[in-house]
Design a protein that fits this description.
By secondary structure, the protein is mostly helical. Helix content is 52%, strand content 8%. The chain has five helices and two strands, in the order αββαααα. It has a two-stranded antiparallel sheet with strand order 1-2. A hairpin with a 6-residue loop joins β1 and β2. α2 (47-57) packs antiparallel against α3. The radius of gyration is 18 Å and the shape is flat. The model has no long low-confidence stretch (mean pLDDT 89).
Length: 102
């Protein structure tokens, strides 16, 4: 949900997000239902727990999920830290070699 982004936007406007609404982290974060056998899995906010859940379903999935999560976190941190607040007012501002490489 990107709570730090909401905080920054409200701060930029001279407000506190808490004055308008409360964010609550859900756990489980998601619940996936499988149509074929009517089973489901609850995915938690803790990536370590989620990785273990996948491992319980499929051998080797924990390592694959952990690698995926590390890459996703890297891209999330770049996006929120650099690109989300950048002003894109020309084509040249969009062309960024770091962004293209990553």
């Amino acid at each position: 949900m990107m709570p730090e982004v909401f905080e920054q936007w409200f701060e930029n406007l001279g407000y506190k997000r808490d004055d308008f609404f409360e964010l609550e982290q859900l756990d489980p974060a998601y619940k996936c239902f499988f149509r074929e056998d009517q089973s489901n899995i609850e995915l938690h906010s803790d990536p370590t727990l989620t990785a273990q859940q996948f491992e319980d379903l499929e051998s080797g999935a924990k390592e694959k999920f952990s690698s995926y999560f590390e890459l996703a976190k890297f891209k999330y941190d770049i996006g929120t830290g650099i690109y989300l607040n950048k002003i894109y007012d020309s084509w040249s501002s969009i062309l960024d070699t770091f962004l293209i490489k990553n």
